Amino acid sequence: MSDAAASPKLAQIIETVKALTVIELSDLVHALEKEFGVSAAAVAVAGPAAAAAAAPEAPTSFKVTLTGAGANKIAVIKVVREILGLGLADAKAFVEGAPKVIKEGLEKPAADELAKKVKESGAEVKIEGA
Question: What does pTM read for this prediction?
Answer without folding.
Answer: 0.54
